[in-house]
Queue: 3 jobs
Job 1
Amino acid sequence: MPIETKSKEHTARTLADVIDRVLDKGLVINADIAVSVAGVELLGIKIRAALASFETAAKCGLEFPSGTKIKTAAWEEAQVAEETCPQCEKRLPIAELLSTGCPWCGWMPRKVKAAAKA
């Protein structure tokens, strides 16, 4: 009987990878619970929950609780547009990635490579 091997597409994920993905993409839970007796609804519960980073929540148009301080340095930093490096998949500000490349893996866009050769 041959031993089955896992495909290359299936990769092990760490807890940090899962949390990063959930915060980046967001997770929404909707639940409607009704308790009825003989067709008469006695209790109705509607649950709406969202788990996302502030950046993802802002992009989706979710409202923040009153009293949330959004005029802080951390919030301003979160508003900087980021892009994923095509080689190592780290997130960087778009301006930095396109002007200097990725500091982690050394990836550089074609324009930066062409300028370095000239």
Job 2
Amino acid sequence: MAHTPLHTVYLTALHYPVYALGLGRRIGVWFQGCSIRCDGCIARDEWEVTDTGQTTVEEVLGRIAGFSPVDGATISGGEPFDQPEALYALVLGMRGIGIDDILCYSGYEYRRLCGLFPHTLSSIDVLVDGGFVNGLNTPYAWKGSDNQEMVILSANESIISAYGQYRNETRRKIQIIEGHSGIFAAGIPTQEHAEALRNGFI
């Protein structure tokens, strides 16, 4: 019998529960590596791909299957679409174990992703797209700069309704998480607070 090949993926972090990026109690997956590298990015430590971040999608899904209860998953980075095969395998695997709300962040614009990765977009529920623009402030809690858009892709009426309301959320949450490589913050700070974090003031 032929064995299904393992899908290599490079991650910065996998954490549960996450409350600061999306609705409810979520699984957070942070991809490692980013070719976009926006000026002012708060996640510069996730730009490079390192051997310490290497794992397999299958191993990640095995860990995710042990998390309960789960309201959804949020995939961020880094840039998830810089590892398109691994991202697609991960999303399909999440669907296969019953995760019904998948939110994905990308620095690429929706229109570009439609042309390159329509199969992946058809398998996620919500995309927040667009590169971070330093100085373009936003009042909304789910994005870092005002150019970014929330694209609701799901046909599920409850998800459409929930994220339709979440679009207007202005109360930001920052969750401090202790991971195997140290302490990191999950969530999207204001640009003022992001600058302070980069400079080590808070």
Job 3
Amino acid sequence: MSGGLHLRPVLRMLGWILLVQAGAQLVPVACCLFYGESADLRAFLAAGALTALAGLLCRAFGGAGEIYPREGILIVSLGWILASVFGALPYLFTGTLSAPADALFESASGFTTTGASVLTDIEAAGRGILFWRSFSQWLGGMGIIVLFVALLPELGPGARFLYKLEVPGPTAESLRPRIRDTAGLLWRIYLLLTVVQTVLLLLCGLDLFDALTHTFSTVSTGGFSPRGASVAAFASPWVHGVILVFMVVAGGNFSLYAALHRRAGWRSLWRDSELRLYLSLLAVATAVIAMDLSRRDGWMGRTLLDAAFQAASVMTTTGFASVDFAPWPNLSQGVLIALMFVGGCAGSTSGSMKVMRLAIGLKAALREVCLLFAPNRVMRVTVGGKAVPEEVVHSVAGFFVLFFACWGLGTLLVLSAGPGLVTAATASITTLGNVGPGFEAIGPMANFAFYGSWEKLVLVALMWLGRLEVYALAALFTGTFWRR
């Protein structure tokens, strides 16, 4: 029994999070030096110093102690909130954004890998701040908490709680007996994908800045681009093709890639039922969109590539745009909206509900239909030939209720700001699902700047809920969590 909530180990871990983030805020300094942005350089140094000071204060008031589920939930929830708050400092100090709500929105969108933006003229911003936008997504993609689990031996048994809370999906698969080894392996795979994609984009003709920033936003399924037109700014189909492939890879379960590292064989990938369903949904969505576009415009060389790119971008919750899909036919837009609710595989860097949850939820619903005619029959929910524990089935059902409740409430809260129901509904799901662009006033070539401070804070809360998969953050608002 853990007893009451122990705040000293929570403060200790939050201090580590802020200290690592302070170090991360110094990385764009190299970019500022290279491009001669001396004012922005000083801004990053100041932001890093303040973040480090806050981290040291947390460490000073923190202390040793075991990390139990309550402490783990508090660390993960406050960790992402503090990362967003202190990550907003560079936007304010460089003058890129003057309103605190705007800076918090942009920062939260980065760390939660949402990709929604309030910048009205992206390319007018300094290179250092544009690098920070994409780099913050890269940090948030695999998860800052997973990084600490990999690096900090002092966590002890608490590492398992943090890892389970941080790895997205209905289950957090442990590949090795020691969670630290698992987290470290996942980060090495993440780094490898980053290096490989950067090299390929360089070979496609991008300069190092564009190659790095787009790679950061691809492997994290974040979607921030230093170009106002997103990926559509590049005419090369090779660039689009490379980004497409790595979006699909990033939307897969990293545990499967780790299994390949252990020489499990390529067949182990295709034996995974979730991966097969994930790729099948992508293929069907691509085919439907491509046929819908060809019915309107006729078959063109880019039709299939654009259909595949946008289907993958939305389903993996990356949010890149290879073309402005706002004027697409209604059927194509409807498919994209449906994909916003799907997301990638469990254990991926993508957001939204995840393919595994949809598979479990659908089979659980079909079981209930069968039980109407045979109420005494014992039926187990199975996925990929394996029985799903009943507690997981109940957890998935609860997740669906909370997810759709948050989406509906978010829609109502931002609806008063206008400009319409479609805008409000897609703004809610695109932030809750960490997707990025929506439709109508928040389309792929638009932004969220027109919303007022109140609506932006609501959308920021939805980003946090989505990144924490609803349960962790919602738990903080229950009496049970704080009761001894």
